Amino acid sequence: LTTLMLAGIRDILIIVNPGDRAAFENLLGDGTSWGINIAYAEQQRPGGLPEAYILGADFIGGSSSMLILGDNIYFGQGFSHTLQHAVAHNDGMTAFGYHVTDPQNFGVVELDAQGRVVSLEEKPAKPKSSIAVTGMYICDAEAVAMAQTLKPSARGELEIVDILKSYAAKNKLKVERLGRGVAWLDTGSPHGLMQAAHFVETIETRQGFMIACPEEIAYRRGYIDQSHLVKLADGLGKTSYGAYLRQVAQEMLPPP
């Protein structure tokens, strides 16, 4: 959610399984308090990442879109600028690459000296590079039609790598590499969740800034004004979260 907000996207569709929908709606609401629009769609069973384009076809409505896995966390200096630049300059599909020590566990992209895509492989036994494709994609309107024509793989799901390959075949796939100053965390397992919790706690304690605070992002991007931020803070009472929002409201905003 906050990654999309950092990218300048204010119309957001959250895809959930039916049993979790009420919890997400109770936590996030419709986004009005943060100056954004949140809608929801239900995925009855795991069908693969491209199914998001099928379920969200009406929501996307022929526009470009950004897709991100809910269990991915990104953090780093200049990350917001990287996102906004990628959204503004996307021509086809933009994926985000990240150097990893165990590429055999990821979808891997091989690039030439000019940064063009040479090959894509899903969890290869002998990886041709150490650049993993992270769970975040920017696509033009063609992604919906591509997803609608895909056939399930041997594991019974639609595969995002097939959409990547389709764009690559048209020379319309760009890979934006995230540098050493950006952290990419996967919270899809108990171990990964614990690692992310330690990372976030360490950064927030040392720097005094909160990571992925939607109220702060909305305020700094001009989606809500100072008085509204103070109102949100007051609604949180004497909690440390409320105190942090009041502190943010008292600061002078940086240039946009």
For the biggest β-sheet, the strand order reads 3-8-5-9
Count of distinct strands: 10
Structural class category: alpha/beta
Major β-sheet, in short?
4 strands, mixed
Q: Helical amount among residues, as a percent range?
A: 25-40%
Question: Which sequence of SSEs, written as H and E, runs from N to C?
Answer: HEHEHHEEHEEEEHHEEHHHH
* Rg, alpha carbons: 19 Å
- What percentage of the residues does DSSP assign to strands (E)? 15-25%
If you average the pLDDT, what whole number results?
A: 94
Q: What is the count of DSSP helices, taking H or I runs of 4+ residues?
A: 11
Overall 3D shape: globular
Distance between the termini: 20 Å
- pLDDT < 50 stretches: none
